Amino acid sequence: MAASTDFCRQIEALRPTLLKYARLQLRNPAWAEDAVSETLLAALEKPQAFAGASQLKTWLIGILKHKLVDQIRRNSRELSTTAGTDDREDLDELLFAADGHWRETQHDWGNPEDALRQLDFMKVLEACVEKLPGQQGRLFMMREWLELESDEICKELAITPTNLWVMLHRARLRLRECLQAGWFDAASHGEAP
User: Fold this and answer.
1) pTM of the entire structure?
2) Where are the domains of the chain?
3) Cα of 125 vs its chain's centroid, Å
4) pLDDT tens, position by position, 37-78
């Protein structure tokens, strides 16, 4: 019983946040209140559905989103499309704490330019690998990209370990030449690879 009381308190503590979210979506305080009430009732009727795989707030917002859609469907003729004057403030309160920091940790999206450069490099590398003579390209792919062991490659291609290392060495030399011409020289001259 104590766990269910604690669960009820946690849910009730999130009511203001859910209400702000619903108001931003619906632009109608009465409909927002109805959607939040339905959300809380659904959560309280089936607390076992909360498995703890996410934060309670995230789980409740997931339920609320469905209730908002239901509310929009029920009231589609009356839905106001005019924005309130305090929408920006509500959004700021929802996303940011009083000290100006994000309320929830934001994911690092990385640097898009670096990601694009890496993607461009991979295209040049793939083109260079395709230019390798058949057996060299195949064994290079098996060793470096599929990360197969040397004995597996030798067995698959019916070659000796010495032959494997010679062919890998030659493949790497050709790739180095190709990458030097197709990527590194082009990048040092400011050309698009």
Assistant:
1) 0.40
2) 2-95, 112-188
3) 26
4) 999 999 888 888 887 777 888 888 889 888 888 888 787 655
